[in-house]
Design brief:
- This protein has about 325 residues and is α/β, with parallel strands linked by helices.
- The chain has helices at about 10-20, 20-30, 30-45, 60-85, 100-105, 110-115, 165-175, 195, 205-210, 215-220, 240-245, 295-310; strands spanning about 50-55, 55-60, 90-100, 120-125, 140-145, 150-165, 200-205, 230-235, 250-255, 270, 275-285.
- The protein folds into 3 domains: about 5-85, Orthogonal Bundle (Arc Repressor Mutant, subunit A), CATH 1.10.10.10; about 100-150 and about 285-310, no CATH class; about 160-280, D-Maltodextrin-Binding Protein, domain 2 (3-Layer(aba) Sandwich), CATH 3.40.190.10.
- Strands 3, 4, 5, 6, 7, 8, 9, 10 and 11 form a 9-stranded mixed β-sheet that branches. A two-stranded antiparallel ribbon has the order 1-2.
- The radius of gyration is 25 Å and the shape is elongated.
- It starts with 7 loop residues before the first helix and ends in a 6-residue tail after the last helix.
- This is LysR family transcriptional regulator.
- One of its GO terms (biological process) is positive regulation of biosynthetic process.
- Belongs to the LysR transcriptional regulatory family.
Length: about 325
């Protein structure tokens, strides 16, 4: 079996991950010259340059990036198999997850996960965009783009948007529409799109990557366009639009997981209106080659059970 200089591999992984020779030396408790020597030895063996150095800037070459993808996974697997043989029960996982999904749905449930599976040590990596599926980023992911054939996917949620506002603002809407004399309840007449447009529309730019794209889609769902007189207030993130709605600034479009379990979900009223599907599907993703790992199997089952219990997906 022909192998590269094995001592060089964890050194290379550390330098690539930390993007620094000095930080890698500090983490590995060796001198910076020792790190440089190991990288030089590995580059000589491979016959390829793994890093570009320009002053204090250090970047991986294309060959270095390709090599990291391969040996990074191998080193992680060696670590995990060794821990199993040593009798270590802990499972450490990094989960890359959208900030809104983490803040409004996942984090409030983490105490239950820790109580049910104390051996699972979960670290969250916040992602504002769709994450790159790679071991360098995380061990598993919440993603809306099941693009990599090297990964397996479990559906958690098919997104739909519906209008909400604060409890106080809902009473204002009812007064202005002349409904305050009616008995509030299940038989509340549906608001028409024209009635909704009489109040400020709180829009999230990031949903459809265009200004007022969320409200355009909502009106398009009933073959209409946003009335020209509508007042639209723009936000970069759904979390911000929902906070604005909480403080009586208008009507926001949100989804199921944003109001799933937080105690303050009672601050909001879902308006009697139609909903619209965004086309986004949220998946739990993990590398197929790691599907037998105990931590990934535990987290997958727990996420699916919670999604079913919280009404995000059917059984």
């Amino acid at each position: 079996m022909k192998l590269p200089p094995l001592k060089s591999l964890p050194v290379f992984e550390a330098v690539a991950r930390l993007n620094s020779f000095s930080l890698a030396a500090e983490e590995l408790a060796v001198s910076q010259s020792a790190v440089s020597h190991q990288i030089k030895q590995l580059e000589t063996y491979l016959g390829e340059k793994l890093f570009w150095r320009s002053g204090r800037t250090l970047t991986l070459t294309d060959e270095g990036r390709q090599y990291l993808d391969g040996i990074g996974s191998a080193l992680l697997q060696i670590e995990r198999v060794s821990e199993q043989l040593l009798g270590h029960e802990e499972s450490r996982l990094r989960l890359s997850v959208f900030s809104s999904f983490a803040v409004r749905w996942l984090v409030p449930r983490l105490p239950d996960l820790q109580r049910e599976h104390p051996q699972l040590e979960l670290s969250l990596e916040m992602s504002s965009e769709n994450p790159v599926l790679s071991d360098r980023v995380a061990d598993c992911f919440i993603t809306i783009k099941p693009a990599s054939a090297a990964f397996s996917y479990e559906l958690l949620y098919i997104e739909r948007l519906f209008p909400v506002c604060s409890q106080d603002y809902w009473q204002r809407i009812r007064r202005e529409l002349g409904r305050d004399s009616e008995i509030e309840g299940r038989d509340e007449p549906e608001l028409s799109p024209e009635e909704v447009s009489r109040f400020p529309l709180l829009s999230t730019h990031s949903i459809f990557d265009k200004a007022a794209g969320d409200w355009e889609a909502w009106y398009r769902g009933v073959d209409q366009t946003i009335p020209g007189a509508a007042r639209i207030q723009h936000f970069s993130h759904m979390l911000l639009a929902l906070e604005a709605a909480r403080y009586h600034q208008g009507i926001a479009l949100t989804n199921d997981y944003m109001l799933s379990t937080r105690k303050d979900s009672g601050d909001f009223v879902r308006l009697p209106c139609h909903s619209v599907m965004t086309g986004d599907k949220f998946y739990f993703a993990w590398k197929t080659s790691r599907q037998r790992e105990r931590g990934i199997r535990i987290l997958r089952r727990w996420l699916v059970d919670e999604a079913i219990r919280g009404g995000l997906r059917a059984e």
